[in-house]
Design a protein that fits this description.
Elements lengths: L2 H13 L17 E2 L12 E6 L15 H10 L4 E3 L5 E3 L4 E6 L8 E6 L13 H11 L17 E6 L5 E6 L16 H4 L2 H5 L13 E7 L4 E6 L12 E6 L5 H6 L5 E3 L1 H5 L14 H17 L3 E16 L9 H10 L2 H9 L33 H7 L3 E3 L2 E4 L2 E2 L1 E7 L3 H15 L4 E7 L1 H9 L6 E7 L9 H4 L3 E2 L5 E2 L10 H11 L4 H18 L2 E14 L2 E2 L2 E2 L11 E2 L3
Parallel strand pairs: 2-11, 17-18, 17-19
Antiparallel strand pairs: 1-24, 3-4, 5-6, 6-8, 7-8, 9-10, 10-11, 12-22, 13-19, 13-22, 14-15, 15-16, 20-21, 23-25
Length: 578
């Protein structure tokens, strides 16, 4: 599990019926929303200008300094053996793989056989080979602490990597089965940059010139805030349509102006809209909620009206959820936690959050699978049929007017939310209304994003917390860390890791472990559903909705937009003919 990258992703996301069910079920936001995707309609040549938050300090996505922008650039330069479609279905990328297969369920040891495209070469002319796979495995396995990496899931389970019957065949043997094996070696790095700790630990950025993608680095200038990619002359696949991709560091607050002034062609605007700052904000103190909401609404109107641009909307591969701290105050009682979960109307909450952004909202009912993914199922019924009122009665919290009290204390919970987010504020206000109807008083508390995790989530200084988690799309792997039962550390204090709810069970851990090792897709989905039902029963957290993704694209640009679980096919990006 890339723990610090997941936390970083969560921080980035902060920047940006029946009580537990939902009465109506409107169509959700689309899984993806792109401009034209037929490369025959795209002309050759031209420079695409793409906004990034900053020029990343590294292109090694396995270093702690890596960001989403690191991954965006890396996938234009490096092999990804498998690509996810908008529903998180993995398919082999034929530019790199002729085929890939794993031994069937029940056959041990699991062996993955890759047949590489014989045309696939690094930009120095050397072919992709087992040596690249071997170096990356050893760097990421965790066996050698000299490699400064978060050791992503799967690599530590590899037993060996060898060349097969010819140089294009690579055989990977695992110590134990690993269901999301398609997530491995994407991106794949050349052995020269992963083969030794010294090479691996170097910031992979301005000096990196090795490519095996449709583009290669032409210039990398952090000071100027610009990375230029040009066509890779050694590329063997469909020729890149665009002659050049310019990735420009443009802060979210400046992107609407940059688009309006024709300085950008592609720009993510979720944060630009969600965290718009009121024009008359003094800057010294956070603006009030009403001013933030109005600024967000005005930013959205402007984004929709920008001449020559289209605002694409889709559900992002991330979800917003309500975490319940099981170690603090009334929430130490499972019945109180279940009452909170039952009191939440997820459909109303999703509509309140996403409706103003022009998205049809669908409530999320699963902790492990997003609505866009195959196998998704709403398991909220696992909470049971008891109402929030009944559960609070059982817990001894008596109705006392509009509030609930026990031993002279009112049932009051604070709700942590990221400061400056209009969507989070709408969500928090709706949650406070829904919980008040059950006699639970909620006090929203906006906290600066840079202190949200370290000073509150990690320390347990909260009752309820509203924030988002990214979703990898490879179910059965990295989700475990969010729900794993905390274990005592050397000092006897439980180590919570990323499980900020601080609740879990042996059964949940075992089900998630079994799901990660189950190679039969149907059996794996069944295990995931069982695990999710148990997470609901623990009232660990309440999944609310998939986050929105808003991307502005110049109307003459094809192949770009809100990708959902998918991503750019860089060689197809370009300007429409005519």
């Amino acid at each position: 599990m890339r723990a610090n990258q997941v936390v970083a992703a969560a921080l980035a996301l902060l920047m940006a019926a029946t009580a537990a069910g939902c009465s109506d079920d409107p169509a959700p936001a689309p899984a993806a929303d792109l401009g034209g995707t037929d490369r025959s309609t795209v002309r050759d040549g031209g420079t695409l200008r793409w906004a990034v938050d900053t020029v990343p300090t590294t292109l090694n996505v396995h270093q702690s300094e890596a960001t989403a922008d690191s991954a965006l650039l890396a996938h234009a330069l490096l092999p990804s053996l498998f690509r996810l479609d908008q529903h998180a279905r993995a398919g082999a990328d034929r530019d790199y793989l002729e085929s890939a297969s794993s031994t069937p369920a029940g056959q041990q040891p699991q062996t993955i056989t890759y047949h590489l495209n014989p045309k696939a070469v690094w930009s120095d002319g050397s072919p992709l080979s087992a040596a690249d796979f071997t170096a990356q495995w050893k760097a990421l396995s965790g066996a050698d602490p000299a490699y400064h990496s978060d050791h992503p899931d799967g690599y530590g389970q590899i037993e060996s990597v060898t060349q097969g019957s010819d140089p294009q065949e690579v055989r990977v043997v695992l110590k134990q089965p690993y269901a999301p094996w398609r997530s491995l070696f994407s991106p794949l790095y050349p052995a020269a940059v992963t083969g030794t700790p010294d090479a691996f630990n170097q910031p992979l950025a301005d000096t990196f010139r090795t490519s095996a993608g449709p583009f290669a680095v032409a210039s990398y200038d952090k000071a100027a805030g610009k990375v230029v990619l040009t066509r890779n002359p050694h590329w063997w696949g469909d020729p890149a349509k665009a002659e050049e991709l310019d990735f420009l560091a443009v802060p979210a607050a400046e992107r609407l102006d940059a688009l309006d002034q024709n300085r950008l062609d592609i720009a993510a605007l979720t944060s630009s809209v969600d965290r718009a700052v009121p024009a008359d904000s003094p800057g010294a103190a956070p603006p009030d909620a009403a001013a933030v909401a109005e600024a967000s609404a005005q930013a959205l109107k402007r984004a929709e009206a920008l001449p020559g641009l289209t605002l694409h909307r889709a559900a992002a591969p991330a979800f917003t959820q309500l975490t319940l701290n099981s170690t603090r105050g009334p929430l130490t009682d499972p019945n109180v936690r279940r009452a909170v979960a039952r009191a939440v109307d997820r459909q109303k909450t999703a509509t309140a959050a996403l409706g103003p952004l022009g998205l049809k909202a669908a409530a999320l009912g699963n902790h492990l699978l997003m609505t866009d993914q195959d196998g998704y199922r709403d398991n909220s019924a696992a909470l049971g049929t008891a109402s929030a009122t009944e559960l609070l009665d059982q817990a001894g919290w008596a109705a006392n007017g509009a509030a609930r009290t026990k031993d002279g204390q009112q049932l009051t919970l604070d709700l942590l939310l990221p400061e400056g987010s209009a969507t989070a504020r709408r969500t928090a206000d709706e949650l406070a209304t829904e919980l008040a109807a059950a006699g639970i008083t909620v006090k929203p508390q906006a906290v600066a994003p840079d202190t949200f995790v370290a000073q509150h989530l990690a320390t347990g200084d909260f009752d309820l917390a509203l924030f988002s988690w990214p979703s990898t799309g490879f179910a059965g792997g990295e989700e475990r860390a969010l729900y794993a039962k905390p274990r005592p550390g050397p000092d006897g204090v439980p180590v919570v890791g990323l499980n900020y709810a601080r609740t879990g069970s042996e059964e949940i851990d075992q089900l998630l472990d079994r799901a990660a090792a189950e190679l039969d897709p149907a059996a794996q989905r069944d295990l995931l559903q069982q695990a999710d039902a148990r997470i609901w029963q623990e009232a660990h957290s309440v999944p609310l909705y998939q986050r929105p993704d808003l991307v502005a694209v110049r109307s003459t640009v094809a192949g770009a937009g809100a990708y959902g679980f998918g991503g750019p096919r860089y060689q197809d990006l370009g300007f429409l003919k005519g």
